[in-house]
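Chapter review: from sequence to fold.
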Amino acid sequence: MVKPDSDEAVRSGGPGFLHAWLPLGGALLLAAVVVAGGLRLNRVAGVLALAGGIQLSAAFAALSL
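The token string follows.
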């Protein structure tokens, strides 16, 4: 989708939604490292890493199709 009166394009629909949530996936992966290393909560860190990895993988799959 192209914005009116400009050359700037934006994503819409499902891929646009996932593209907007990419920073959250990266933040979850970084939080997993902090939780595992600093707080020693390995199970919680695993859940955070899994959630971030799934989100990043879903966004990559949706944006590459």
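Two observations follow directly from the output. Residues 42-64 form the longest helix (23 residues). The helical segments are 13-20, 22-39, 42-64.
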